[in-house]
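User: Teach me something about this protein's shape.
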Amino acid sequence: MGQRGAILPLMAISLAVLMGFAGLAIDIGYLEYQQENQQAATDAAAMGAAQRTFADNCDNPSDAISAAYSDAALNGYSSAYVQATSPPSSGPYANNKCAVAVTITKTKMTTFSRLFGLTGLESTQAVGLANQATGGSGCIWLLDFSQADQTNFSNSSIQMPKCSIYLNAFANFSNSTINAAYIGYANGTNNISGANFENATPQPMSEVPDPCSTFSGCAWLTNNAPAAGSCSGNLNQSNANIGTAGQTSCYNTFALSGHSTVCGIIEITGNQLHLQSSTITSCSSGVSFVMSSETNDINFSSATLTLAAPTTGNTAGVLFWRPSSQSNSVDYSTCVCALTGMLYYPTSQVNYSSNSGNFTLLVFGQMNISTSIGLNIGTPAPGYGSSGGATLGE
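Assistant: First, the predicted structure itself:
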């Protein structure tokens, strides 16, 4: 009897321990489930805030913060549990005005563990981003990261306060003055010695994709690019009117000088496009220069160009287009350029050096604008220069 009686307390203790472990397992599963729900609510609040930030062009952080609180409340978390800040004060997106950091902290009451005074304090974080990777009002897209040292903004002055710069690599910003809504870089380390960033400072981001497919004119050209050598005539004229509104003119090589006017779609399927030492304007309905993979000699040096892309038709919004298969450098140096529309050289280095210039949308491989002063890049029209609006930070 004595031995049997001694077993009963041991069994009771063992049963209590087993029940404790079972209760702990239930509580752990419950906390994990609640943590997943809370993280989803945090992500949703950060995305909602980023979408609001995108709509406001990164100019109204109070609206973004209000959106974060509203979205969190929709998922069951009142403002007592939520902290939203824009721009974030720390982390990889610190001082990025296009970022919103959201933290939700809430104590989860357990069933069994609280008998021992244990509760779960769950804190989840997320950062919502506008104008990063998915687009936004992007005005400069520099896509190539294989020759990362070729992008140079040193000693330049650029005003683009309502739009963004995307760098898939990094850049030399030394002694430059840059006013941009957002500056993102994906790889490497920037040289910012002596740089004056009047608005956004460079922030890390994910690599951006080529935005061409998100613009109807650029996407159409990708699917309807002229074949190399498909046009036979060579143009070499001065003081001429070239092209017709709404129609396509096709040339093997194209050299235009003097005071001239261009119009419609101008295809160049040979190796040369020269507009240097000229004064050229577009007609009222606009012009698109469309090149083939063979067009490797482009020179606009010492030209005065006042050109605008068509606003309707297959090539709407595209001013200069060359396929990604041709990567030779492009020379705009000393050009006095006022160019409205997309300049698309996605795998090329574009060189520009001038004391003035007005642009809308630049999609290049790399860009060298060292010593260029007085460059102005205007905000694209709604939906132009935008391939999305918001994403979650990594």
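Now, about its shape. The chain has two domains: 2-129, 138-392. Residues 138-392 form one domain. If you'd like, I can walk through any region in more detail.
User: That's plenty for now, thanks!
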